[in-house]
Design goal:
Blueprint: E1 20-22, E2 25-30, E3 40-46, E4 59-67, E5 72-75, E6 78-81, E7 87-90, E8 96-99, E9 102-109
Antiparallel strand pairs: 1-2, 2-3, 3-9, 4-7, 4-9, 5-6, 5-8
Length: about 120
């Protein structure tokens, strides 16, 4: 069997990644420091009290995996209904927050940096 450090491919088991608090709820983040991938991949459980925030350098793509029927995204002050299997790209500078409990996959490019979370 190949030494994991020598493998070209990378594997993440989100059930084995400890969740960390974030402005949206809790996130499990994978692939930090992987040279072949320019970003990070997160599974985030959004809480009812997600905070509006923005990033100065990171573009986030949200893929909605599970959400309540009345779930919404707020983007620069506008609210949009969302449902599972929809996705949205959120460029740097866009103030955003999820409204309602949901589970999302977030692709962050470049690699996510917790110091790039800004609040008004």
């Amino acid at each position: 069997m190949t030494d994991p450090a020598e493998r070209k491919w990378k594997f993440a088991d989100f059930s084995q990644i400890a969740p960390v608090p974030c402005p949206c709820g809790t996130a499990r983040r994978a692939f930090k420091g992987v040279d072949e991938f320019p970003g990070t991949l997160h599974i985030t459980d959004i809480s009812e009290d997600a905070q509006r925030h923005y990033h100065k350098t990171v573009t986030e793509t949200y893929v909605f995996l599970e959400c309540q029927p009345d779930a919404k995204m707020e983007l620069d002050g506008e609210q949009f209904s969302v449902k599972p299997l929809q996705a949205i790209v959120i460029p740097p500078g866009v103030r955003h927050r999820a409204i309602g409990k949901m589970r999302v996959m977030i692709i962050a490019i470049p690699e996510f940096d917790p110091n790039d979370e800004w609040f008004d």
